[in-house]
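Researcher:
Attend to token order:
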Amino acid sequence: MVKIIHTLADHDDDVNCCAFSSSLLATCSLDKTIRLYSLSDFSELPHSPLKFHTYAVHCCCFSPSGHILASCSTDGTTVLWDTQNGQTLAVMEQPSGSPVRVCRFSPDSTCLVSGAADGTVVLWNAQSYKLYRCASVKDGSLVACAFSPNGNLFVTGSSCGDLTVWDDKMRCLHSEKAHDLGITCCDFSSQPVSGGEQGLQFFRLASCGQDCQIKIWVISFTHTLGFELKYKSTLSGHCAPVLTCAFSHDGQMLVSGQILNHCTTKEALSCILESVDKSVIVYDTNTENILHTLTQHTRYVTTCAFAPNILLLATGSMDKTVNIWQFDLETLCQARIAEDQPKQVTEDWSEDDVSNWLCAQGLKDLVGIFKMNNIDGQELLNLTKESLADDLKIESLGLRSKVLRKIEELRTKMKTLSSGIPDEFICPITRELMKDPVIASDGYSYEKEAMENWISKKKRTSPMTNLVLPSVVLIPNRTLKMAIDRWLETHQK
């Protein structure tokens, strides 16, 4: 299901970070360099390594288009590079001169955030390379940063354990103690969850820390209703600090630290857990079963990244290497379906199963109402807007809308499962098995004809994220096509 296909061993010191674009892999290290590799054969580009920084490089990230790479260092600078020729486009000095620990591009490439050891956070204009806004957190070093999928918010994490939420004008919206011994990383899921009235959107955020915990949060924000951060769950059972966490490009996988018990996040197909015990563990978050344990690194795993268009995972380590792992999509899908099938028969859910489902959907406050009315799986699927209002007495229109939307998602999922077709083989637009899958610039795969029709109607936004598409170029997804063909050969004889 997953195998190592390449090992990069060009760095002379610990690998601190790795990042993918649609065609390249970037790695950076304590050895002061950034290296670039082609995804076609993992050969290093002629203009690599990139050399400018005079001290360790802590973080690197691509712009959404992949044309620009940002890197930041202990030397107090954030450098922008042209990925096509390796030339420096700009050298942006942190105003305080403090070591820069993290940098991130906004989803529309207009801004870049850099966070430093003295707690300063700078919002740069990524076109003019000029400082736009500067602020600071009250305590600790800034070591983590993530933008929401729509770019309206970004979150920073500090070594003191604080999560701070900022809007796109650099106004601090919220700050709270999230981890007792310091945050190490945070990341948003790329899939916003639409939610209720007035265009409200919810975003799922993961954070991890030195306290050996991963926490899941839900963030919502509109200009009319304001901002809200809600704690959702803790992935407990860690025996050591969690070094990193990241959602995959399509939001279906979560990367985090060592978990000994189980995953409780229900959003993902799988989560890949990256640990200070030198291993990477693959979990199925629906069944909460371990699918694989990857143990190639000889020292602590410090970083990981998913490729946007293909099922590749890169893991970097203190052993100075980067391993590239490939997933067998067909096997992954079949394993998920085979193990998860019993839990997906919603009609057979007990009242307790319904309660657990409500909690997983962020609807914990409705558990008492549903239990009082003896709502089991069959009753759940038969709920309507009238029964929610009249029988269950749920007064909030937004809350009723959210429940109905979640129930419809259950019905759609049941229909997919009853057909036996893996959901990953189904076009998000047509909800039918793809015959000619293509990858759009949002990183998702669609049926070619359906996506061409979507674009031809002047819809320049992603059908999945509603964000503006950086490009309308569609790339054939040959890996997915082969997996679908193999599945058809097996199941339609």
The CA atoms of residues 244 and 390 lie 46 Å apart. Confidence is low (pLDDT under 50) at residues 195-199, 257-276, 285-290, 337-343.
